[in-house]
């Protein structure tokens, strides 16, 4: 058994245990984040049943999108620049980084040009970190109202990230607020439309699940350290 398969199985077991500890006992989808990892490693996790692939950069998604023959669900989760939206919409099944009203409008425009309704998550900067993008929770109502007027986007959930605290327990309040915003978001759209709460990465996904995440984004803990290029 390869190292990647061994690590993947360990992550899946940790997810299952975190679900048991969560008061929600929710289903949890694992997105394998393949940023800076080669096609061969992607194919290995796909062979183990992983169908959700996450990329941070449009350019890298484009390279892999053309090479990968297996059927997967493509998640774009990195900050999306306006000039990359056209390409992103052409490839992504889910854009997790709907992090501003301006980018929501641009996604709607570009999706409309190819007669697509683009699934998106509203990304909120709950911790208020200046180094992170995302909609302020204070602008929740405005973002929701704008999103509801855009015919070529479909809000299916919420995404957030917690700061990298030395003490992981400090992430818990961020994830608690993420769950609260998620419940609030569900009430603002038709029943069943909002179903994804994407929060938690390699270092903190277990606490995120305990606080109600329905999707986690894990890369390094599956594939090992990235080789940056």
UniProtKB/TrEMBL annotation:
Keyword terms of this UniProt record: Pyridoxal phosphate
Residues covered by the Alanine racemase N-terminal domain: 8-226
UniProt key word NADP: no
Cofactor: pyridoxal 5'-phosphate
Chain positions found as N6-(pyridoxal phosphate)lysine: 35
Matching InterPro entries: Ala_racemase_N, PLP-binding_barrel, PyrdxlP_homeostasis
Single GO MF annotation: pyridoxal phosphate binding
Family to which this protein belongs: Belongs to the pyridoxal phosphate-binding protein YggS/PROSC family.
Summary of the function given for this chain in its UniProt record: Pyridoxal 5'-phosphate (PLP)-binding protein, which is involved in PLP homeostasis.
Protein's name in the database: Pyridoxal phosphate homeostasis protein
Organism of origin: Dialister pneumosintes
């Amino acid at each position: 058994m390869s190292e990647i398969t061994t690590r993947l199985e360990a992550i899946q077991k940790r997810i299952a245990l975190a679900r048991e500890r969560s008061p929600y006992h929710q289903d949890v989808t694992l997105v394998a984040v393949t940023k800076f990892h080669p096609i061969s490693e992607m194919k290995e996790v796909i062979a183990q049943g992983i169908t959700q692939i996450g990329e941070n950069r449009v350019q890298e998604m484009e390279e892999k999108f053309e090479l990968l023959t297996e059927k997967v669900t493509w998640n774009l989760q990195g900050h999306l620049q306006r000039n990359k939206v056209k390409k992103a919409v052409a490839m992504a099944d889910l854009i997790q980084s709907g992090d501003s009203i301006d980018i929501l409008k641009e996604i709607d425009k570009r999706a409309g040009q190819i007669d697509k309704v683009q699934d998106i998550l509203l990304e909120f900067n709950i911790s208020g970190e200046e180094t992170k993008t995302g909609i302020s929770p204070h602008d929740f109502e405005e973002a929701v109202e704008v999103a509801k007027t855009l015919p070529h986007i479909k809000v299916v959930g919420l995404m957030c990230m917690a700061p990298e605290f030395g003490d992981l327990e400090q992430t818990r309040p961020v994830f608690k607020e993420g769950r609260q915003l998620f419940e609030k978001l569900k009430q603002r759209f038709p029943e069943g439309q909002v179903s994804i709460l994407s929060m938690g990465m390699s270092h903190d996904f277990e606490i995120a699940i305990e606080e109600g995440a329905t999707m986690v984004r894990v890369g390094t803990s599956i594939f090992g350290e990235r080789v940056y290029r």
